[in-house]
Write a structure and sequence with these properties.
Length: 479
């Protein structure tokens, strides 16, 4: 059994990570140990990374105990880089965490400064990366132990020893990884940052002067952020389909609420309404702790929005649109309350058979009405009410392949006075051998009886085909 991590008191007594526990107890008889929990540590590190979103929307983790923030364009919000680092360090101490902080031009240099600088807070000035790295051990380049050991056997123990060396011999002996790490640290080659959350296109923040626990204050801040977000989206003619509200507590906890919309949204009042419903559902379950000191609003899914033509009719209210957003806003409220997977609508599918010509889709899907119009084209009208399954009927026809003269449905006799058709519909031939009970060719008729009721009937199968077994069914009712 070995030591995997130590605190400052243990390090003062000479205990170090990687040391056998027997040797550690020899140095420190009063040593207190706990079983390592790497999986729990990984989860806690990810939670701490999410808390760091208060400083930058681009945050990632570096195993086993590191966090990385891209603070480009963010430091001025906290008074500068030094003030930001001081604030992070102060808050970490409040969480009973010891943090070593550093800023640099490259990810590799910042990683090395945070771990090997003698100061707890280090700022590597622009243009001085090579000079800073030169006296550090080669392990500061994020190399594995075997590589650093082999380099040490040749007397190469500092980064400065290999900065100006020819690269070809190093690559042939130690592999390309050594030079890759060196170039990443010095900025000669790029390194992918890989944030935990995709970088947002639109991101707003609202810091409180003092922590707040009243939901009324949160609601006011939400309304301000929603209005600013709407203005930013409208300015570039974009709309959002997904937005996220984050509430940062002073003790390091973060609450996240995400809403989705069924259409592109850039209206502040609608965004506010959806988040207010999310807050009201949480109610007393929202743990406010000692208060929130920061709220952020992020648009995660942003698309170009089209202009909407306004009607010119004087009978309509001013600015009333052709496609009213009222239904979409209602679907948004239902979807965010019950889940968009439970709020569905029908959209067209590729099939000639009416019962297969549609499928269920989430209300979040874009422009389903337009798709129906494109699908319909000049095809014959369909009834609003369609039976599933279809209902068998008994038919009397003048000729076998002609329209029915009379039919019986649910023990009721219907005399037909008008008929239109047939509309012949054939099933997909490629499904013939894959499905049991494969449908036959159909002839559809729209008929009206002597009482004014209109029906949609079809004959399944053709009398002219010996392999068919024609039968009549009622498929739908016209209004």
């Amino acid at each position: 059994m070995r030591i995997s991590a130590t605190n400052l008191a243990a390090e003062t007594m000479g205990v170090a990570a990687g040391m056998p526990i027997a040797d550690a107890r020899a140095l420190c008889p009063d040593l207190v140990t706990e079983n390592a929990t790497p999986d729990a540590d990984k989860v806690s590190l990810a939670r701490l990374a999410l808390w760091c979103l208060r400083y930058s929307p681009l945050v990632t983790t570096h195993a086993l105990d590191g966090l990385a923030l891209d603070i480009t364009g963010c430091a001025h919000l906290f008074g500068g880089e030094q003030e930001m680092l001081t604030d992070i360090s102060s808050r970490m101490r409040q969480f009973h965490l010891t943090a070593r902080l550093a800023t640099a031009e490259t990810i590799g240099a910042a990683w090395a400064a945070a771990r090997y600088s003698p100061d707890p807070i280090t700022r590597v000035e622009e243009g001085s990366v090579n000079a800073f790295l030169a006296p550090l051990p080669l392990s500061a380049l994020r190399l594995n132990d075997d590589t650093t050991r082999r380099l040490g056997q040749l007397g190469l123990r500092k980064v400065g020893n290999i900065l100006d060396m020819p690269k070809a011999p190093l690559i042939s002996r130690f592999g390309a990884r050594l030079i890759e790490r060196l170039n990443q640290a010095t900025g000669k080659s790029a390194e992918v940052f890989g944030p935990l959350i995709p970088p947002p296109v639109f991101h707003l923040r609202y810091p409180f002067v003092e922590p707040v626990v009243q939901l009324e204050a949160v609601d006011i801040a939400l309304e301000i952020l929603a209005g600013k977000m709407a203005d930013n989206l409208q300015e570039v003619r974009k709309g959002a389909r997904c937005l996220e509200l984050r509430l940062f507590r002073i003790d390091g906890h973060m609450e996240r609420m995400r809403i989705r919309t069924s259409r592109l949204c850039h209206e502040g009042p609608h965004i506010t309404l959806l988040f207010r419903e999310a807050l009201s559902r949480l109610g007393t379950n929202l743990d406010r702790g000692y208060g929130f000191d920061l709220i952020t609003l992020t648009a995660l899914d942003v698309e170009e929005t089209d202009d909407v033509q306004l009607k010119w009719s004087a009978e309509l209210a001013e600015n009333q649109r052709v496609s009213s957003p009222d239904l979409s806003q209602l679907l948004d409220r239902f979807g965010n309350r019950f889940g968009f997977d439970k709020i569905t609508r029908f959209i067209p599918a590729e099939s000639h058979l009416p019962e297969r010509a549609f499928r269920r889709s989430s209300a979040h899907r874009n422009n389903p009405v337009l798709q129906w119009r494109e699908k319909a084209g000049n095809s014959p009208s369909r009834p609003l009410l369609i039976f599933k399954p279809v209902e068998p009927i008994t038919v009397l026809a003048e000729v076998p392949d002609g329209p029915p003269l009379r039919f019986q449905w649910r023990r009721q006799q219907h005399d037909i006075i008008a008929a239109e058709g047939p509309e012949r519909v054939a099933p997909e031939w490629w499904r013939r051998h894959a499905e049991k009970g494969f449908p036959q060719t159909r002839d559809y008729y729209r008929v009206e009886d002597n009482k004014g009721y209109r029906f949609w009937l079809y004959r399944d199968g053709l009398y002219s085909r010996k392999q068919d077994n024609p039968r009549w069914y009622l498929h739908g009712l016209f209004s």
